[in-house]
Amino acid sequence: MTIMMDKDALNAFLARDFPQVAGQYLVEAVSGSGLTARLRVADDHLRPGGTVSGPSMFALADLAIYCAILARVGPVGLAVTTNASIDFMRKPAAGVDLLAECRVLKLGRVLAVAEALIFSEGQGDPVARCSMTYSIPPKSSEIRGV
């Protein structure tokens, strides 16, 4: 797949368009086969019992898949999640960052389907698996019929 945005462009996009979360996440790698993103785990990501919360893991998967799609279509800020499924498989470590390894399974004109495996850094088994479908809005020229 052709790469339209590399990791630096994606991180700059997040900082500009999503400053409320940009410091928590980092796109670490982009390739033709996928993308790796990091959640910098902090105390506000933890739940009782000393583990990373489900909503924090879901947010990482959503952001990582969103960036994996943007890496291929360019900076389309209005691309939105239309379907999501997540399986929590293991308890993530509390004091360790989480990494999401994504791959885009299908990239169409209107819909994109992708998946992410989430790992506690340094551990081999995934803690969660997520699949998502995104709606990609038409380009402005398509909206106007140009």
Q: Keyphrases for this structure?
A:
146 residues; alpha+beta; Thiol Ester Dehydrase, Chain A; 6-stranded antiparallel beta sheet; two-stranded antiparallel sheet; globular
In short:
The protein is α+β, with helices and mostly antiparallel strands. The protein has three helices and eight strands; from the N terminus they run αββββαββββα.
Report on the architecture of this protein.
With 146 residues, the chain is an alpha+beta fold. It has one domain (7-144): Hotdog Thioesterase (Thiol Ester Dehydrase, Chain A), CATH 3.10.129. Helix content is 25%, strand content 36%. It has helices at residues 7-17, 54-73, 140-144; strands spanning 25-30, 35-39, 46-47, 51-52, 80-88, 98-107, 111-120, 128-135. The strands form two sheets. The protein has a six-stranded antiparallel β-sheet with strand order 1-2-6-7-8-5. A hairpin with a 7-residue loop joins strand 7 and strand 8. The longest helix has 20 residues, at 54-73. It is globular, with a radius of gyration of 15 Å. Mean pLDDT is 92; it is low at 141-146. It comes from Paracoccus hibiscisoli. GO terms for molecular function: acyl-CoA hydrolase activity.
Query: Strands across the major sheet, in which order?
Result: 1-2-6-7-8-5
CATH class: Alpha Beta
- How much of the sequence lies in strands comes to 35-45%
- The share of residues in helices is 10-25%
Instruction: Report the order of strands and helices.
Output: HEEEEHEEEEH
CATH superfamily: Hotdog Thioesterase
Mean pLDDT over the full residue set: 92
Number of strands: 8
Largest sheet: 6 strands, antiparallel
State the separation between the terminal residues, measured CA to CA: 27 Å
Could you say which structural class the secondary elements and strand pairing correspond to? alpha+beta
Please tally the helical runs, counting DSSP H or I stretches of 4 or more residues.
3
Low-confidence stretches: 141-146
Tell me, briefly, the overall form.
globular
- CATH fold-level name: Thiol Ester Dehydrase, Chain A
Radius of gyration, CA atoms, in whole angstroms:
15 Å
Number of structural units classed as domains: 1
Known CATH architecture = Roll
